[in-house]
Amino acid sequence: MVEILQYRRIMLKLLALCLFTSLMYVQTAEARIRHYKWEVKYEYKSPDCYEKLAITINGRSPGPTILAQQGDTIIVEVKNSLMLENLAIHWHGIRQIGTPGMDGTEGVTQCPILPGDTFQYEFKVDRPGTYLYHAHYGMQREAGLYGSIRVSLPDGETEPFAYDYDRSIILNDWYHKSTYEQATGLSSIPFVWVGEPQSLLIQGRGKFNCSSTPSGPGVCNASNPECSPYVMTVIPGKTYRLRVASLTALSALSFQIEGHNMTVVEADGHYVEPFVVDNLFIYSGETYSVLIKADQDPSRNYWMTTNVVSREPNTTDGLAILNYYPNHPRRSPPTAPPAGPMWNDPTARLAQSQAIKARQGFTSTPPATPDRVIVFLNTQNRVNGYTRWAVNNVSFTLPHTPYLVAEKYNLRHVYNQSPPPTGYDFEKYNIYDVPANTNASLSNGIYRLEFNTTVDIILQNAVSMGGTTSETHPWHLHGHDFWVLGYGTGKFDINEDPKKYNLVNPIMKNTVPVHPYGWTALRFKADNPGVWLFHCHIESHFHMGMGVVFEEGIEKVGNLPSSIMGCGESKGLGNP
Asked: What is the pLDDT of residue 22?
């Protein structure tokens, strides 16, 4: 009898365990949690044949690609093994709806991850598309900490375009000087500019001319396999979706594939009314999907190249190989790499920007009118003798306590409470002339947006202090997508230019260029509770003050994780 009872107890426990396991399986299947474990540290790498310290994730740069489906929860455990540096990682293009503390922006949404600490990012990917991740502490992004996020549709759903295979590449520029050397020069009197990059990388690989600069033995090795060209193998007759992204520190780029046209079908996670290009202009922080068909002579390989535009280049073009199977992947194409477009032709770049429209059937119509209009004049200035970038004559600085924490816990004294200017003297300011007084001021004040209102942003470009150039600035908005209402040349006319806005099928994006001596108009809904950065995605420009911060609906933000606190006046907050 005792044995029978013991047997029944064992069977009941086994049944309960099986039931619990089944329930756990169902919950996990529904939640679709994707777990990543990363160690971030410095390693010696030679991505362009020149050996230098690079920031790696699990030994890799670019880091691992995050693969997910729409609706999945991503958990990334990040251990900071940089030893002497703090760290933060931003999930570029992920809106962080309901998780503003996971945006990964040091000084805005979190305190940095200290050396030796492990931090857990957790967020949901709510839309399919092509996104990125990268460091957002100091100028670490350009030291190699970056990678791709690829979000697919749920099972059973299809894209509005057909393809056989899916590939991703990231374009980047590469400096041999450390981020410390660059940041020190930018913050010095006299000012020391970072200069043009030494190389362009395609998926983390480039080729620096080792004979152009004297270096110690073994520092530059042209035969190092780390810097052999990236190879993308294709099967003749097949169509490929190629997700192309840029995370350059400085350069605007053109990307082209020898002998192959590209059909643009996606931009920053939104479907594009398809159009065909022979080269793709791309700016730092942007992502595109293009379709290419492997329909050329299959007996040979072809070049993929990228080159600098919008700045007079002093950097060798980046090269990769489109390998037609079964040709050997290292077999060089028999032709010279194709030359990209002229670097100083803004007309072609503006035309491609204007060609990007929302795909028919996937249009999200913007509100007809805004509740608020803010004009941001982009200028180069002096502040106490230092060279800075400014918006409406105010150069941005970060506080020691993250804005999100300060707002949630009513610590508003930690930053300037004076609201920054919402415009400039439209009538008197000449965007083509350097003003007699180039002085600006520093501020860490923020723009407060009424929750759920519609906001228009006008980005206005102008001449730099040198008096001869106007630079291309790619602006990235955290926490939102925006409608791109239009681009123009010259000074924005607040009375006439809004009449030309595209309110029928504007593309939605999270990153957009403002072209030389031109303007770009955006519209977005302030409907994501939190505090969000909007900044130039050029590393040196943001370091020099080219950014602003928006607060919206802070009273709707739930409890913040204690892990994002611990610096400035947030020490001890959030602890039980």
From this structure: 37
What pLDDT is attached to residue 416? 96
Q: pLDDT at position 256, please?
A: 98
Separation CA 319–CA 313 (nearest Å): 16
User: Which DSSP symbol is given to 205?
Assistant: B
- DSSP annotation string for 520-572: EEEEEE--S-EEEEEEESSHHHHHTT-EEEEEE-GGG--PPPGGG--SGGGTT
Q: By C-alpha distance, which of 501, 437, 481, 488 is closest to 459?
A: 488
d(CA 322, CA 74): 32
Say what the pLDDT of residue 248 is: 98
Q: Which amino acid is at 75?
A: I
The residue behind tokens 């150039």 is 469
Find out whether 183 and 249 touch, Cβ atoms under 8 Å: no
Task: Answer whether residue 391 shows pLDDT above 90.
Answer: yes
What is the DSSP code (8-state) at residue 334?
S
* DSSP state for residue 176 in the 8-state scheme: S
Exposure string for 306-329, b = 16+ CB within 10 A, e = fewer: bbbbbbebebbbbbbbbbbeebee
> 208: which 2 tokens?
């620096």
In angstroms, the CA 432 to CA 67 distance is 46
- Spatial separation of the C-alpha atoms in residues 392 and 32, rounded to whole Å: 45
Mean pLDDT computed over 511-520 = 98
User: Would you say 362 and 355 are in contact if contact means Cβ atoms under 8 Å apart?
Assistant: no
Q: Residues 127, 129, 135, 140: what is their CA dihedral angle, to the nearest 10 degrees?
A: -160
**What is the rounded distance in angstroms from the CA atom of residue 269 to the CA atom of residue 267?**
5
| Cis previous bond, 190, omega within 30 | yes
- Would you say 514 and 538 are in contact if contact means Cβ atoms under 8 Å apart? no
For the record, the structure tokens of 73 come out as 């929860």
Whether the Cβ atoms of residue 94 and residue 128 lie closer than 8 Å to each other: no
